[in-house]
Amino acid sequence: MPSAGRKRLTFDPGDMPIYAIGDIHGRFDLLQRAEQAIVDDASRLPGRKLIVTLGDYVDRGPSSAQVISHLMAPPPEHFDRICLTGNHEIVMLEYVDGRISFADWMPMGADALLRSYGLDVEQLPLIFPAATKLDAFIRQSLPKPHIEFLRSLPILVDTPDVLFVHAGIDPLRSIEDQKDDDLVFIRHRFFESPVPLPKLIVHGHTPVERPETLPTRLNLDTGAFQSDRLTVARLWKGRVHLFST
After folding, report:
1. Which residues 6+ apart lie within 8 Å of 91 measured at CB?
2. Alpha-carbon distance 93 to 98, whole Å?
3. What angle is formed at CA 96 by the lines to CA 231 and CA 180, rounded to 5 degrees?
């Protein structure tokens, strides 16, 4: 899918603890549990902390709208939060902007997203048999603040030792030369390349039964929408601690 030059953040967190959360996919219940677990864990650590969510907040699970509203609200006290975009947010905006059809969007799990906004995906095509009217109704029904929030999301966070991104990187390109589409869609070229990765890449996008913990790659997507496990990684002082809902 085409993408439009998302923001890329670069900073040095120093000794700040960072909590990364894997793909949420409409599981507001698990997100609430994960944040409470983060707050409890962080109560023993000094200073401010950062939460980085790795994208894919919408589709498949039952509460996409509630997840977005929550991420738009202030983070827990003594925390900052960075929300990265995932491919599901990119594709949702492709539909909103008229670049893909309703039929193309539905296989992404968008029926669950629409239900979370109170839209009946079985009845709507019967009420609006003309595609143009169906699309117009859906697009005007999605809250503009939610759409603008999704448009604003950065696509990566680069720190001296760790890069946070939704899907991964193209190992043949420098971090500065990465293409947006690879950052949210890549799989096999990232996983299978013999070229060493430049630093630890913390990502989601590809569901796994358990978090993948490799020397230069950490996959936190444990398929929360169907597994009931939303995985969190705490990165602090060069060490990684994992926990799940």
Report:
1. 1, 100, 105, 108
2. 8
3. 55
- CA-to-CA dists, residue 74 to 68, 69, 70, 155, angstroms: 12, 10, 8, 20
Q: Rounded CA gap, 170 and 202, in Å?
A: 14
All structural domains of the chain, each given as residue ranges with its CATH number in brackets, are 17-244 (3.60.21.10)
What are the φ and ψ backbone dihedral angles of 110, each rounded to 5 degrees? -70, -15
Predicted structure pTM score: 0.96
Nearest Cα to Cα of residue 163 among 192, 188, 183, 193? 183
209-243 pLDDT tens trace: 999 999 999 999 999 999 999 999 999 999 999 99
Q: Which residues of the chain have pLDDT under 50?
A: 1-4
Look-up of token digits 């999301």: 153
Q: Which of 231, 224, 206 is nearest to 87 (CA)?
A: 206
